[in-house]
Predict the 3D structure of the following.
Amino acid sequence: MTNDSSHDSNGQPDGQAMWGGRFSAKPAELMQAINVSIGFDRRLASQDLAGSRAHAAMLRQQGVISRGDEAEIQQGLATIEAEMATGTFPYREEFEDIHMNVEARLRELIGPTAGRLHTARSRNDQVALDFRLWVREACDRTVGQLKALQLALVQKAEANADTLMPGFTHLQPAQPVTFGHHLLAYVEMFGRDAGRFSDARRRMNESPLGAAALAGSPFPIDRDQTAQALGFDRPTANSLDSVSDRDFALEGLAAATLCGVHLSRLAEEIVIWTTPQFGFIRLSDAFTTGSSIMPQKKNPDAAELIRAKVGRLLGSFTQLTVVMKGLPLAYSKDMQEDKVPTFEAFDALELSLLAMTGMIHDLEPVPARMAQAAGAGFSTATDLADWLVRTLDMPFRDAHHVTGQAVKRAEALGCDLSELPLADLQALSQGITADIYEVLTPRASAASRKSYGGTSPDQVRAQAARWKDKLK
Ligand code: ARG
């Protein structure tokens, strides 16, 4: 628990006295076990160093510490940074968290001057700063990953601007669409997701450093200077709020959850499309696995795992919301529980985005299968009705009725709408001419939907071009 020895305090091997060992832990050991956070907040190491460097420079500039002291501190922090980079930095549980680990190491390296770094600062504003910097970087990374995914989708969409497939409602064939159009739907969703991360970033981009424990500082600190040095737009305006809110992380997690929902829907479609029953797309071995017993299987595991990850994302959002709910101002130790769910969520999201991007590049459509399915299920029935309205000036309700009868007749004859004899159509409505066959193929149906944002190949190419331009 508190040391890595394989024997408990009674000299018993853990295997024999596992529970006894736990119960015999002393209060001090239990306290350390529940209090310690270095195991996870070490991920804030680089943010902690950046904050300390900016703080030390500001203290010197304001005459709070001497030039010599600052130089020593910066030197020590540089050594720590190098130790972290080479994996030699000693992360120690006895020093509880990342902030005290850094300070303890600084003291070992430069002596008592290290103690001056914490002037006009508290771990409360320090952790608020470090965590905010971490979430800000995570949002920026995510936006970059989303763009890469969008670009992959746009490229596939452009290459498939006139690849026909059935469009579905209720997962029943509805009207023919193009595969490119379908893929671009997700480009829109991921674009809004990226927008949510950018919005959240804009709001969180205020520096809490200098709020100190909760009330601000009596030292002549310059919060604008540290804010600027750390890339913030401005310092936060209320010290209590600065150390006590984690809404920036919650916004990131909310955006991550929504993005996870979109990823999950696309993943589900990939799962459906790769079934032998659909057979719309193929994935290479790179993103599928075989079965240990059924040699014919090719399972879309990556898509399934992406589909599932939203559980983790929403779980993290829920976890932190519950932690924060009902906490009085200002800092409470509950808030140490903000990190694990946030780290886990962004890790899961990153992996999902990268795997989905890889899968989109990897997938190959099977146009023949898609086209065949695009024509099935009387998918051009709406086109027939629209033709009656446009050409014969029939009210749409009547056209809907005539079309229903045509579908019934085709069903009885076991043929497609485009294969119905003209005489059968004319029996339903006298004015129908052979021209009607031009709108009854899936290709004509898709090509006719030229309205802005519609599925016609021209529209798809135009939207793909717009996105390519935007993602540059
Ligand atoms: N490890 C703590 C956290 O993550 C740092 C802040 C501790 N502050 C305090 N007053 N105990 O929240």
User: Anything to note?
Assistant: Confidence is low (pLDDT under 50) at residues 1-18. The longest helix spans residues 123-159.
